[in-house]
């Protein structure tokens, strides 16, 4: 299969490109810089230059592909409205190009806000609806194209897709611990995060591209619910700093923007995904990765 991948040089994207190439697929990766282009070419992928604002490039990539994996996102936390706008516009451009073809569009989504008081499941619809919502409501927008002949698959990633080299949320929480000399959690630390190793996430993306029926919601979740207090304790142990609580109202001041997420309960189950797609996470757990020095 010839697969067009956005975010191909990013954290999850790089692992996904490796997974697709190893499975015998041809990969065309979107690259906005010379460095990203060189990295992709060294892997054996073809490069399409462009970014999320280059909708013509996105359409060309989709038009020439047997399937699309959309993992790119601006992640501009200083201007989330711009990130949401760009995400919605790019998903719409890709889906319009694929309309009527029956070809797959696998897009990245998340598990935040799916449920209250219990882990979110694949049956829970995304609460993000409309252009002003997180990610511009892109999951629901994309799923509307199922009736227009696109094999849409939503890959919902745990809040931390971890591993050596990760510069995401856990890296930011660890950086705050270094800055302040304490590893902190919010409130009583009972908020829970799901987690997945990056290699397991990449394998699930490939399975979704190859196998998932239109309208599928996949949960890239290896561990269902890790209390944030335990995450902070693991970071504190590795850095050799004390562990303490930060009040919810002080979370953003202490952690930066990540504080509002570290206070949220983002537990999610992948029981349905694992059963239907014979996907068993095998990578190390989050706490094991932290203790092994992945963020040290």
TrEMBL record:
Segments forming domain NAD-dependent epimerase/dehydratase: 3-212
InterPro entries linked to this entry = Epimerase_deHydtase (IPR001509), NAD(P)-bd_dom_sf (IPR036291), NAD(P)-dependent_oxidoreduct (IPR051783)
Residues of the signal sequence? none
Name listed for the protein in its UniProt record: SDR family oxidoreductase
Q: Which organism is it from?
A: Actinomycetospora flava
Give the classification, highest ranks: Bacteria, Bacillati, Actinomycetota, Actinomycetes, Pseudonocardiales
């Amino acid at each position: 299969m010839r697969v067009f991948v956005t975010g191909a040089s990013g954290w999850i994207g790089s692992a996904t490109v490796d997974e697709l190439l190893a499975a015998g697929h041809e990969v065309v990766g979107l690259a906005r810089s010379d460095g990203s282009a060189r990295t992709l070419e060294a892997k054996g992928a073809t490069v399409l230059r462009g970014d999320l604002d280059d909708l013509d490039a996105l359409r060309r990539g989709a038009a020439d592909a047997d399937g699309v994996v959309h993992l790119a996102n601006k992640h501009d936390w200083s201007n989330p409205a711009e990130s949401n706008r760009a995400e919605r516009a790019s998903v719409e451009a890709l889906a319009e190009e694929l309309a009527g073809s029956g070809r797959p569009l696998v897009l990245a989504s998340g598990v935040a806000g799916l449920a209250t008081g219990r882990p979110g499941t694949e049956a829970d619809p995304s609460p993000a609806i409309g252009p002003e919502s997180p990610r511009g409501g892109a999951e629901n927008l994309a799923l509307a194209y199922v009736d227009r002949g696109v094999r849409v698959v939503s890959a919902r990633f745990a809040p931390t897709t971890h591993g050596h080299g990760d510069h995401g949320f856990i890296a930011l929480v660890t950086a705050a611990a270094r800055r302040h000399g304490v590893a902190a959690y919010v409130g009583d630390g009972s908020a829970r995060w799901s987690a997945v190793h990056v290699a397991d996430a990449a394998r699930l993306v490939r399975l979704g591209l190859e196998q998932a029926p239109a309208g599928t919601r996949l949960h890239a979740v290896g561990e269902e619910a890790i209390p944030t207090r335990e995450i902070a304790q693991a970071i504190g142990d590795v850095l050799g700093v004390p562990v303490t609580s930060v009040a919810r109202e002080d979370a953003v001041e202490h952690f930066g923007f990540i504080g509002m997420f570290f206070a949220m309960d983002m537990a999610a189950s992948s029981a349905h995904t694992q059963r239907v797609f014979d996907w068993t996470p095998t990578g190390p757990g989050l706490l094991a990765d932290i203790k092994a020095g992945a963020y040290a």
